[in-house]
Amino acid sequence: MADQSVSQIFSAIADTAPAVRAALPGRRVEYGGENPSGESQLAADVYADSLFKDRLEQVDAVGTYFSEEEESAVAVGDGSLTVAIDPLDGSSNLKSNNALGTIVSVYDEPLPASGDSLIAAGYVLYGPITTMVVAHDGVVTESVLTDGNQEVVKDDLTLPSEPTIYGFGGRIPDWTPEFTEYAREIESEFKLRYGGSMVGDVNQVLTYGGIFSYPAVKSAPDGKLRTQFEAHPMAYIVEAAGGKSSDGTQSILDRTPTEVHERTPVHLGNDELIDRLESSL
Ligand code: AFP
């Protein structure tokens, strides 16, 4: 039953993603509003949110839709599942025409909820091609999405065992001394890949092996990224692909936020690099 529900949810995401992508060129302008995290919204953020909500409303298993762009949950049906979504993550990349994505979490509890309540998570990457990565039951699959078509290209995606890249967010002067020291070591061993969109940056880690961090910074001790909408789902995916996640001390999936738009430091990647990070912080 859960398998069928998860597959219906991600079919709905795959069906909607081409329309979201097609709408981007005309929606690079500011919408005039702010999301609940205080960030200004682009017309594309608001439009993507409405497209996903309308489509997920048609999936029987979904009872609640909770978007990063909205203050509170929206009841969309009688189903027992909650879909949390960041409809357009990295939307500031739209101005410079760089990668962006959609992040989707499927919880079997109302939010705020612990990462243990996730039953699936996935993302769409709007890169040169549109791909969708979905984690469920410990298996990660990658598909290529073209209009109306979903072609699985990897049916058991795992993190490469020899990591080669890293991507760290936040301004270097804002990093803590402990994270700065860790970063200096990592910089001497691996190649920098950072694009400012979590989906694009984590996708690179899944492709090449390595580590993505958006650490606690002096001005924002809880980091920048949202637990329910960004950190939990990406941690779920990376752990299902054989890697590790950490908020600096524990798996991100062990975190239960007290409010839905709460933030957390995020570290995702190969086991050895996350272990080293936790002993450095
Ligand atoms: P936007 O959606 O405002 O572009 O933010 C994207 C994001 O939440 C996440 O996708 C990135 O990893 C992170 O912020 C990038 O933050 P910096 O701009 O500080 O590098």
List keywords for this structure.
281 residues; five-stranded mixed sheet; Fructose-1,6-Bisphosphatase, Chain A, domain 1; 6 helices; D-Maltodextrin-Binding Protein, domain 2; hydrolase; fructose 1,6-bisphosphate 1-phosphatase activity; EC 3.1.3.11; single chain; eight-stranded mixed sheet; alpha+beta; metal-binding; binds 1,6-di-O-phosphono-alpha-D-fructofuranose
Description:
- It is built from six helices and 17 strands.
- It is α+β, with helices and mostly antiparallel strands and 281 residues long.
- It has two domains: 2-154, Fructose-1,6-Bisphosphatase, subunit A, domain 1 (Fructose-1,6-Bisphosphatase, Chain A, domain 1); 165-280, D-Maltodextrin-Binding Protein, domain 2, CATH 3.40.190.
- The strands form four sheets. The protein has an eight-stranded mixed sheet, with helices on both faces. Strands 12-11-13-17-15 form a five-stranded mixed sheet, sandwiched between helices.
- Strand 8 and strand 9 (139-146) form a beta hairpin.
- The longest helix has 21 residues, at 2-22.
- The chain is globular, with a radius of gyration of 17 Å.
- The model has no long low-confidence stretch (mean pLDDT 95).
- 1,6-di-O-phosphono-alpha-D-fructofuranose (AFP) binds at residues 39, 89-93, 169, 196-198, 201, 214, 224-225.
- 1,6-di-O-phosphono-alpha-D-fructofuranose (AFP) binds next to helix 4.
